[in-house]
Design a protein that fits this description.
Elements: E1 3-7, E2 10-12, E3 18-25, E4 32-39, E5 46-52, E6 58-60, E7 68-73, E8 78-83, E9 92-100, E10 115-116, E11 120-124
Parallel strand pairs: 2-11
Antiparallel strand pairs: 1-3, 3-8, 4-5, 4-9, 5-6, 7-8, 9-10, 9-11
């Protein structure tokens, strides 16, 4: 049973940084893609970034390019989301999700991901 556990959320001031972590277990992830989504109150879950476990190829939502960096530690089955230059619009619950890869396709919608963590809350406020 695939399990994902996020951590690292919290309160940060505008302009600050946070690093989120996602611990994955219960599967062999060599042919999976893993991504980060956010969900603000009253809004749909929104893609932020993702990478392929094996090759480490990354892709991002346009709104976070240059501010967020996704990375992985395959030996530890950990995925990270480094978030810089945070602003109030980044406030949300952040979710880690994973799904088997289909060729070079890069899934970006929540419906395309099979497994989800419980989320970690990020609040950007002064």
């Amino acid at each position: 049973q695939v399990q994902l556990v996020e951590s690292g959320g919290g309160l940060v001031q505008p302009g600050g940084s946070l690093r989120l972590s996602c611990a994955a277990s219960g599967g062999t992830f060599s042919n999976y893609v893993i991504g980060w989504f956010r969900q603000a109150p009253g809004k749909e879950r929104e893609f932020r970034a993702a990478l392929s476990w094996t090759l480490g190829r990354t892709y991002y939502a346009d709104s976070v390019k240059g501010r967020f960096t996704i990375s992985r530690d395959n030996a530890k089955n950990m995925v990270y989301l480094q978030m810089n230059s945070l602003n109030s619009e980044d406030t949300a619950v952040y979710y880690c999700a994973t799904t088997p890869m289909t060729g070079s396709y890069q899934p970006r919608t929540q419906d395309e991901y099979l497994y989800w963590g419980q989320g970690t809350r990020v609040t950007v406020s002064s």
